[in-house]
Amino acid sequence: MYHIWQAIIIGIIEGLTEFLPVSSTGHMILAQNLMNINDKDPIIQTFNFFIQLGAIMAVVLIYWKRILSLFGLIRRKSDSKTGRKLNLLHILIGILPAGIIGVLFNDFVDEKLFSAATVLIGLVLGGILLIVAEKQKERPTTEVMDDLTYKQAFLIGIWQLLSIWPGFSRSGSTIAGGMLAGVSRAAAADFTFIMAIPVMFGASGVYMLKNYDALSMNDLGFFLVGFFVSFIVALLAVVSFIKFVQRMKLTYFAYYRFIVAAIFLLYLLF
Fold first, then answer.
1. pTM of the full predicted structure?
2. Sequence-ordered alpha helix ranges (H) in the chain
3. Subcellular location, in the record's words (predicted)?
């Protein structure tokens, strides 16, 4: 049985880190390690994905017009000078690689990769990727999300495969991958946030079904508190954080990741 105060702390961490390329899952695993929570527990693994839905709902509120336009429910003026628009096929192409691999290797990830040690590796390697993406000298060929090509959407989806490793960061790998594919930081960030909606709903559904037998009504309060805390914190932070990620150089996030990894490594060793 887990405590409400633990759900509140983890929900705050999720809400603050979901939109930054620093790995919200990695931060939650490290925090749970500090609180002596077993990160291999199916309940906790399901909880980690479930509360991310809270943060993702904040994205739904921010991008609701664009989301409805994807389904043709409202008309939206394109940001592209050519009149092109992002459509559902872009999203499908982007989420397909990680969706397939995530389902096929779900058990392996749970058993081998959900640990503080693997998170530290992911933080460092993901930080290196952010620096590489930021240091590239070619000018982006795609400045706004509406100009995103299907090829670029697919390449971003391939880079998203790295986020299956906790600590790499879904937003970090996709924003960096988008920049390496010729997409501007702002457009890559926008696509990343929208693409996160079906990804997180799908991941949460998989874990809920997989660990259904391990869950009970006693866990309901723990899950709901984490969800709503994550949603409220993310809602307060989402507007400024989205703009922050769109403008901030990825190298600064990389340095932060290195510092967190170094501090936690010292904690594990001593």
1. 0.91
2. 4-17, 24-34, 42-62, 64-70, 88-104, 106-108, 116-135, 150-159, 170-180, 185-210, 220-247, 250-269
3. Cell membrane
